[in-house]
Amino acid sequence: MESLKSKKLFAEAKKVIPGGVNSPVRACLSVGCDPLFIERAEGSYIYDADGQKYLDFVNSWGPMIMGHAHPDIIKAIQDAAVYGTSYGAPTSSEVDLASMVVEAVPSIEKVRFVSSGTEATMSAVRLARGYTGKNVIVKFDGCYHGHADSFLVKAGSGVLTLGIPGSPGVPEDIVKNTISIPYNSVEALETTLRDADLNIACVIVEPVAGNMGCVPPAPGFLQKLREITAEEGIVLIFDEVITGFRLSYGGAQQYYGVTPDLTCLGKIIGGGLPVGAYGGKADIMNSVAPDGPVYQAGTLSGNPLAMAAGKAALKLLQQDGFYEDLNQKSAAYADGLLEVAGRVGLPMQLNRVGSVMTSFFTATPVTDFETAMKADTGLYGRHYRQMLDSGIYLAPSQFECSFMSSTHSDADLKRALLETEKSFSLLK
Ligand code: PLP
Fold it and tell me: Ligand 1 pocket, 266 CB below 6 A?
């Protein structure tokens, strides 16, 4: 579907915003079309500037697990806004949401709120360095932890989509302290993490990689990572910005039964408003200022509207059977996609954990960055444009995930499968 108003807005945006967008992948460069400008959203649908309707599998890149504009969340934000939008002083809402997070997430005894996922990961790494007195961090090829300097080494998400290996502006002196190793390789864990001369402060990992497309951890990988880091005195950080409150109420650590030392959260805990958080063992968190010497602060941290939205979101997720229903629906949809690909004879790998999935256009299994790179991005771009024409909004990059919400109805998913079959047939 062409959106004439979006085209006009994009031309205007490019004059005043770099690339016309406030986050690079939104520019849709890798799928060869202009972005839609969105006017409103409700349930499983978003509406462009011309009022055209699309079934949404992006869900704001994950936060909208209960669909767009959920009445409870909107009401919580409206109710809070009447009392003022920011005080820069403590509120009871922060204590409420912190208590909910501590109760939900196995590794978290204390939690600090920030305003984005990047702030959460950046702060968690500083804390791990301050706590251990060491500088080196280990990450995994193709994982993305936000845009802080230390993470822009073989990173996923927009860095990968745009083919940028790192980023100008990130000093060599900083990235020399970042080691990036292959995801899902126990051998790489053994050789790197056992090397005491490397002075490793922490390992940061997406427990399910979501920024080279969805790549689940191989059986035993997270367990091995936990075992070695514990033995070597290395702080293990789970970046659960995507998986937190997504795979289960306790996140990936509950889903896989592996408990890290620190956890980073974002997306869902803000109910669609800007929130991030990092938390973990009290022993480590007590090093954060003002209790300890590791500095981290924020004018809008714990913002009252964001806390209200987060509380409303988490309450919705506590409903009996929420995750069972969502994960079952997602499994059925993923099976449907595989069936369609099989019928049409299109080589495709479907990676899924819970309600997060990616269809990779490649004949070989995708288990890490190298195998993800084999996917045919040109074919994905054609599929993206065909689906958009039939009113279905997918992530504008092969290396991102589809996110399901509780508002995706059976009828929505049936239609999505029909349109997928038509699109796949045209790709052959
Ligand atoms: N960590 C992961 C796993 C992410 O997927 C993202 C963003 O997509 C981030 C960190 C950064 O979060 P934000 O974009 O809120 O800064």
Answer: yes
CB 270 within 8 A of CB 310: yes
Q: Is 149 a catalytic residue?
A: no
> Alpha carbon of 249 to those of 153, 186, 193, 260, 317: distances in Å?
31, 28, 30, 16, 7
Ligand 1 centre to CA of 344 (Å) is: 35
The reply to whether 195 belongs to the active site is no
Banded pLDDT at 168 (limits 50, 70, 90): confident
Specify the residue for token string 């007195």. 133
Tracing tokens 């998400």 back to the chain, one arrives at: 157
Ligand 1 atom at minimum distance from 23 CA? 14
Q: For the chain, give the mean pLDDT.
A: 96
263 pocket-lining for ligand 1 (C-beta < 6 Å): no
Give tens-digit pLDDT for 368-416. 999 999 999 999 999 999 999 999 999 999 999 999 999 999 999 999 9
Span 105-161, pLDDT tens digits: 999 999 999 999 999 999 999 999 999 999 999 999 999 999 999 998 888 877 777
Two tokens, residue 21 = 């967008």
Residue pair 317/66 in contact by the 8 Å Cβ criterion: yes
d(CA 70, CA 75): 9
200-205 and 235-239 beta bridge pairing: parallel
Ligand 1 site, residue 161, Cβ cutoff 6 A: no
Grouping H, G, I as helix, E, B as strand and the rest as coil, residue 46 is: strand
Ligand 1 centroid to residue 427 C-alpha, Å? 32
- Give the span between the Cα atoms of 419 and 410, in whole angstroms: 14
Q: What is the ipTM of this complex?
A: 0.99
pLDDT of residue 216: 98
